Structures are given as structure tokens and as C-alpha cells.
């Protein structure tokens, strides 16, 4: 089974702080730049606002969001910590700290911040969802599943939460429950490909039940799964850039690190799990139409 690269939720908030006219203009410009994904321009607007209103917590918090989008996580954390000094209970602050620590791969510290966010806002389903992702990274699947169950109690039609629920069950070898989660996700968003691909990749088609491997008869041939390769790179950073581009366009992708017979390391950007080559064709065509990418069909997890 592949692992989805889930999009951790980053939040920014409008505020009700009383501004002078020039301050409000800078703040609104910064928010509009964030909405347009013009993150450096957002940083510049919030920095100008901080210069004239150094005690404005929303300016620091939203600049921190812009820094995160620029992958400047240390600067983001500094801004969130400054926000905490000014207004420690500002809505969404600890969630955003959790996001920043997640991207720095410090999952325990991310979880600590999600704990604080949940203690302040027990109905914040995004906080439960993000904490579940961190727990999945730590292979703490049982606690991650509890967080996903809570997420779905609050937001029962949250597609990605259902996908993660399926992944967690699959990682725990609870394949029937994984199948049920993916099937429910498909009912909610039938045009999204991830749950469909995961469902195809489940070991049910190879004769497995929950935690039990059935014996195949000598004549049974287990078919090989396939995936779409979007790019092959010698430089890891280039593969990660392609990964991010695909994520931003709604594709669940992963990067494989493989060494060929010549001892050269390749970083392969891939998506999908397909039981037959022809089942990969619709997504291959969509990649071409959406992004102009000529993907190729490869054996799952191999060159």
C-alpha cells in the first residue's frame, strides 16, 4: 500500500482588531496576497504593518503563514511564538505551530501544539486530522485512528479523513475496515482518485482477509500492480519540487528513492495503484490535459 502525502491544513484568519486606515490597508493587502498565493508580497505587507504596529498579533500570525508557504519554517515559528507572547489564545495559533513543526519533521512537538489547540477548541476537526497525520508518521496507528474517528464525528463527510482512516486500518492489517473507509470516501467524492486507487491496491484481490493470508492454489497467479511515473530525478530537491507541484493540483503523490544496477540513486515521483496497466490510462490522460505531463506506467515500487 502506498501512503498518501496528506495536505496538512494551514489556516489564516481575518481579525477584528481596530486599525488606523493605513494599517487596515496593509493588513487587507496581506490577506488578499495570501488568498492569491502571492506569499512574498504577503510577507512584505505584514512586515510593513509590523513596523508601524509591532503589537498586532494577527500581523505576525499571518506573516507566519506566508513564511510557511515559502517553506521558511523557522521564520514561521518565530512569528507564531511572537504572536503567542502578545495574544496566547489567538484562534488557530497552535494549529499553525503544529503545521510548522510537522514540516520540520518534529512530530512530537507538532502533536504538543495540536493538543493545546484541541484543549482550546474541542470542535476543531482540522486539529484532530492534522494530529492524526503526525501520529501516522510516528506509526502510532491506534492513536491516529482515534483522532480520525473524532474528526469524522465532527465532519462526517471529510473525504481525506476517510482516506486516512482507510490507510490507518490498512497499516494495522484491518483490511475489511480499510475497504469500508475507502468505499465511503468514494461515495462522497466519486471524482477523486485516491480512495479508488487505494481500494484497487488492497490485498483483497490477492486473497487476503483481515489479518489472515489465504493459501493460493498452484495455478493462481497474483497480478502485479502498476503506478504512474511523473518524473525521474538525480537530485532529490527537484523531485520534491515536482511532488509539491502535483500536490498543489490535487494529486496524491510519493517519491521513491531507488538505486539502479550502476549504483546510481534515482528519485522517482509516482502516483496511483492499478491492478492493470489499462486502468492507469485515464489518470495518465488527465495528467497530460491538466499539467502537460507525459507520465509512464511502471511496475509498482520498482524501476
Brief account:
By secondary structure, the protein is of the alpha+beta class. It contains 13 helices and six strands.
Order of helices and strands: HHHHHHHHHHHEEEHEEHE
Low-confidence parts: 1-9, 12-16, 204-223
The proportion of residues in beta strands is 5-15%
Q: What's the CATH superfamily of the domain at 21-156, by name?
A: Tetratricopeptide repeat domain
Q: Trace the largest sheet across and list its strands.
A: 4-5-3-6
Globular, elongated, flat, extended or rod-shaped: what is the shape? Answer: globular
CATH-defined topology of the domain at 21-156: Serine Threonine Protein Phosphatase 5, Tetratricopeptide repeat
Number of H- or I-type helical stretches? 13
Q: What separation lies between the terminal Cα atoms?
A: 17 Å
Biggest β-sheet strands, sense, barrel: 4 strands, antiparallel
What can you tell me about this protein's structure?
The chain starts with 20 loop residues before the first helix and ends with a strand. The strands form two sheets. Strands 4-5-3-6 form a four-stranded antiparallel sheet. The chain has a two-stranded antiparallel ribbon with strand order 1-2. Among the domains are: 136 residues, Alpha Horseshoe (Serine Threonine Protein Phosphatase 5, Tetratricopeptide repeat), CATH 1.25.40.10; 74 residues, Sporulation related repeat (Alpha-Beta Plaits, 2-Layer Sandwich). Strand 1 and strand 2 form a beta hairpin. The longest helix is centred in the N-terminal third of the chain and has 15 residues. It is α+β, with helices and mostly antiparallel strands. It contains 13 helices and six strands. The radius of gyration is 22 Å and the shape is globular.
Amino acid at each position: 500500500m502506498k501512503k498518501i502525502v496528506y495536505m496538512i491544513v494551514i489556516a489564516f484568519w481575518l481579525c477584528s482588531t481596530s486599525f488606523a486606515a493605513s494599517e487596515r490597508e496593509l493588513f487587507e493587502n496581506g490577506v488578499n496576497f495570501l488568498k492569491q498565493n502571492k506569499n512574498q508580497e504577503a510577507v512584505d505587507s505584514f512586515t510593513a504593518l509590523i513596523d508601524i504596529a509591532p503589537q498586532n498579533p494577527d500581523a505576525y500570525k499571518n506573516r507566519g503563514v506566508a513564511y510557511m508557504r515559502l517553506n521558511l519554517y523557522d521564520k514561521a515559528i518565530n512569528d507564531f511564538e511572537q504572536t503567542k507572547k502578545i495574544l496566547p489564545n489567538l484562534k488557530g495559533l497552535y494549529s499553525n505551530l503544529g503545521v510548522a513543526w510537522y514540516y520540520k519533521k518534529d512530530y512530537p512537538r507538532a502533536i504538543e501544539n495540536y493538543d493545546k489547540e484541541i484543549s482550546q477548541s474541542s470542535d476543531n476537526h482540522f486539529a484532530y486530522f492534522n494530529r492524526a497525520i503526525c501520529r501516522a508518521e510516528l506509526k502510532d496507528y491506534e492513536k491516529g485512528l482515534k483522532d480520525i474517528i473524532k474528526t469524522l464525528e465532527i465532519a462526517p463527510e471529510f473525504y481525506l479523513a476517510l482516506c486516512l482512516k482507510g490507510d490507518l486500518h490498512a497499516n494495522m492489517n484491518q483490511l475489511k475496515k480499510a475497504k469500508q473507509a475507502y468505499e465511503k470516501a468514494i461515495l462522497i467524492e466519486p471524482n477523486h482518485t485516491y480512495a479508488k486507487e487505494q481500494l484497487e491496491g488492497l490485498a483483497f484481490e490477492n486473497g487476503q482477509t483481515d489479518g489472515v493470508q489465504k493459501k493460493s492454489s498452484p495455478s493462481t497467479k497474483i497480478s502485479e500492480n502498476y503506478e504512474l511515473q511523473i518524473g525521474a530525478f538525480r537530485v532529490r530537491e527537484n523531485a520534491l519540487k515536482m511532488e509539491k507541484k502535483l500536490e498543489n493540483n490535487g494529486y496524491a503523490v510519493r517519491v521513491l528513492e531507488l538505486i539502479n544496477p550502476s549504483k546510481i540513486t534515482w528519485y522517482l515521483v509516482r502516483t496511483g495503484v492499478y491492478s492493470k496497466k489499462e486502468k492507469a490510462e485515464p489518470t495518465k490522460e488527465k495528467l497530460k490535459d491538466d499539467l502537460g505531463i507525459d507520465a509512464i506506467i511502471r511496475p509498482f515500487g520498482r524501476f
